[in-house]
Amino acid sequence: MEAVGVAPAPLAAPVKKKLLDLEKPFPAAAASNGAKASPAGKWAMKKKLVGGDAGYVLEDVPHLTDYLPELPTFPNPLQDNPAYSVVKQYFVNPDDTVTQKIVVHKTSARGTHFRRAGPRQRVYFQSDEVNAAIVTCGGLCPGLNTVVRELVCGLYDMYGVASVVGIEGGYKGFYSKNTIPLTPKSVNDIHKRGGTVLGTSRGGHDTAKIVDCLQDRGINQVYIIGGDGTQKGASVIYEEVRRRGLKCSVVGVPKTIDNDIAVIDKSFGFDTAVEEAQRAINAAHVEAESAENGIGVVKLMGRNSESPFYLEGKGGLLEFIERRLKDNGHMVIVVAEGAGQDLIVKSMNFVDTQDASGNKLLLDVGLWLSQKIKDHFKKKPNFPITLKYIDPTYMIRAVKSNASDNVYCTLLAHSALHGAMAGYTGFTVAPVNGRHAYIPFYRITEKQNKVVITDRMWARVLCSTNQPCFLSHEDVENMKHDDDEHHLHNTQLLEGESSPMKNSAKCNGSAAGV
Questions:
Q1: Cβ contacts of 189 within 8 Å, gap of 6 or more
Q2: Which residues of the chain, if any, have pLDDT below 70?
Q3: What is the pLDDT of residue 479?
Q4: Can you tell me the distance from the alpha carbon of 478 to that of 144, in angstroms, rounded to the nearest whole number?
């Protein structure tokens, strides 16, 4: 492949572009997974904002030429790929961007956009130059193996890359274990299995050691698959890579079974998780319906997606359960793992602790709630109940991904490697309003999505499950205040003052009577 010219960092945007706060620092990401400090902490990721007409703002992602301006470019080998011979337009237009907000008024500003994902006409790596590494971190999730498989096969089949290795056991595998050679043959059928063939772990993030490994082994593309904590770690790795001036693209693929990553439409594995959760809920319903005053309690994942509720007194959950049993003779309660933590803490002496990823360790709300229900009805000898508690959380995350998630994982992997080959770095890839885009790390690590319990989606949940709203007037006002702050952040971004946070409902975990 012959080098032709030197291309500047692509910052194309619609007409009358203007660069806004290109060098405006963003607070350095505090890497989760037990990350140790490194000199990169002084190099906070900087925003690349490009302004246009009518309030248009492109939140662009870093590019290798931001700090290595003399890099040569090469023709994209996809143009010679037989699989693409029937495609009318091989490459993404450099001006294509994806809007974050699609519902607008006629007087609305055009708002925030992200760079559209996909293959570019020029690439910054020759095929035989690439030495790629893939790592999976954090908890298990359906689809991990599919993403690994499609990264390997995509690099090999589309770009002719023959050197791809896997990092065993999460972040600590960079400096404590040997790499695993990955080929299309070795990953051929791994998408048919749950878990991850590379292994995973929480913690172990030592930025200096990880980047030393990348440098010593000549790795120039690294694909990091994991949740928001893992992506924070990836951001710090990018910062250190940039500080050292290495030609190495750092790419994130967001993963969480909770589906609570900000900005993006959804995370992979969520469709499979919902499908599997349905089996547990159906089983609980069968158990409840088959017994006198039967109650099925199912705990599902949803760390920060719960709605507040209370047990005792008028309008409380216990009163509602009693009324529902009198009316229907049975009921099912689905509760998010993060629900009711404040109530549990009040009822026992407990000191908050965290896991290796920095996540708060949750108390088992399912067991606690089941016991509270049993205690309540023990005081009513003429009202016997039969309660069954089902906790399928670890069964759900260990299953293989379904067909829908397999397709989604393939698109994520392809978008990620297209971005790396085009020289982009310090980004994560995911769909925004149905279009895959490259998103700066800081946008998905600032904050987690939570269910907005003051919008229509939550109202639909209440209506479809016939459960009451346990929110007090104070709860509702607090939620409205949060929404107002979100709107203010969006307005400030259009003025070049701060970054927004999409705070939309993604999950549906709560104490819900069915």
A1: none
A2: 1-45, 305-306, 349-359, 472-514
A3: 63
A4: 37
Nearest to 438 by CA among 459, 422, 449: 422
Closest CA to 232 of 95, 360, 357: 357
DSSP state of 43: S
Say if residues 502 and 449 touch (Cβ distance below 8 Å).
Answer: yes
Structure tokens at 426: 């310090």
What is the largest distance, in Å, between two alpha-carbon atoms of the chain?
86
Q: How far apart, in whole angstroms, are the C-alpha atoms of residue 258 and residue 17?
A: 38
CA 76/CA 119 separation, integer angstroms: 8
The position carrying tokens 């790592």 is 135
Distance CA 239, CA 237 (A): 5
List the one residue out of 269, 295, 302, 298 whose CA is nearest residue 281. Answer: 298
**CB neighbour class for 417 (10 Å; exposed up to 12, middle 13-18, buried from 19):** buried
Reference 128, options 68, 168, 74, 82; nearest CA is: 74
Domains, the chain, ordered by start: 49-268+401-445 (3.40.50.450), 271-399 (3.40.50.460)
Closest to 246 (Cα-Cα) out of 64, 5, 424:
64
Q: Among all residues, which ones are annotated catalytic?
A: 258
Token pair belonging to 160: 């002719």
> d(Cα 459, Cα 464) in Å, to the nearest integer?
9
Helices and strands (DSSP H and E) totals, the chain? 13, 18
Give the tens place of pLDDT for each residue, 188-241: 999 999 999 999 998 889 999 999 999 999 999 999 999 888 999 999 999 999
Backbone angles phi, psi at 436, to 5 degrees: -70, 140
401: tokens are 């991904």
CA distances from 459 to 223, 339, 506 (A): 39, 18, 14
DSSP assignment, residue 216?
A: H
- Contact indicator for 134, 164 with CB cutoff of 8 Å: yes
Strands (E), 413-502: 427-432, 435-440
Give me the long-range contacts of 347-355 (CB less than 8 A, separation at least 24).
355/202
Report which DSSP code applies to 91: S
For residue 350, what are its two tokens? 């407990």
Quote the pLDDT of residue 103. 87
CA dihedral 236, 253, 354, 28 (to 10 degrees): 20
